[in-house]
C-alpha cells in the first residue's frame, strides 16, 4: 500500500491554514514530481470581505464554483450550512483529475479537501473509492471532527500507511517542510 498523507484541523475552526499548507507543499513538490489535484479557496464579497462561498481550483489553475451563500440562479442544490453546493461544477473540474490521474503520469494526487461539501457529489465519493482501491499516493486534507461521521474520511484516516497531521496556527508553517520531507523520503515519488 502506498502511503497517504492527510492534514486535519481536528477540533479547530475553519481558517487554520490547511489550504495554504497544501498550496505550499504542492509548490515545493511540484519542482520534483508531477502533481495533479485541486484545492478549495474562500470567496469573499468585494469591499466587505465577508465570505460568500468557496471555489475549487485545480493545481493547473482552472477554477470553478464549489458553493455560494446566495446563488444568482434559482436552481435546487444541496445545502451545507448556509452554502448551496454546485455539485455539477465541482464534478466537471475534479472528476477528470481523479479518474484520469493514473494514466497521466501523476505521481501524487493532491486533494483539498474531502469534506461535507465535496461529499455532496456521489460521483466524487465513488471516484475517491476507486483512487483508494488503486492505492494511488495522495496528500489530502480532511475536516475537523464533526458530529456526523463521514465514512470516506474515516476510511482515509484508517488507510495502512496513512499519516495524519493536525494543523494548528502554531505549527502550519513548520509542517510545510516536515510533510514535504516525509513524502520525499517515503520513496513515494519516482
Concise synopsis of the structure shown:
The protein has 190 residues and is an alpha/beta fold.
Overview of the structural elements:
The chain is of the alpha/beta class and 190 residues long. The chain has a domain at 4-39 and 95-185: P-loop containing nucleotide triphosphate hydrolases (Rossmann fold, 3-Layer(aba) Sandwich), CATH 3.40.50. The chain contains 5 helices and 9 strands; from the N terminus they run E-H-E-E-E-E-E-H-E-H-E-H-E-H. It has helices at 18-29, 87-100, 122-134, 151-157, 172-185; strands at 4-8, 35-44, 51-58, 63-68, 79-80, 83-85, 108-111, 138-142, 163-166. Strands 5-6-4-3-2-7-8-1-9 form a 9-stranded mixed β-sheet, sandwiched between helices. Helix 1 runs parallel beside helix 5 (172-185) and helix 2 (87-100) packs parallel to helix 3. The two termini are 15 Å apart. Residues 7-13 have low confidence and may be disordered.
Q: Please report the first level of CATH classification, the CATH class of the domain at 4-39 and 95-185.
A: Alpha Beta
Task: Identify the CATH homologous superfamily of the domain at 4-39 and 95-185.
Answer: P-loop containing nucleotide triphosphate hydrolases
Q: Report the end-to-end length measured between terminal Cα atoms.
A: 15 Å
Say what the CATH topology of the domain at 4-39 and 95-185 is: Rossmann fold
List the keywords.
Rossmann fold, nine-stranded mixed beta sheet, alpha/beta, single chain, 190 residues
SSE layout and pairing:
Elements lengths: L3 E5 L9 H12 L5 E10 L6 E8 L4 E6 L10 E2 L2 E3 L1 H14 L7 E4 L10 H13 L3 E5 L8 H7 L5 E4 L5 H14 L5
Parallel strand pairs: 1-8, 1-9, 2-7, 7-8
Antiparallel strand pairs: 2-3, 3-4, 4-6, 5-6
Helix pairs in contact: 1-5, 2-3
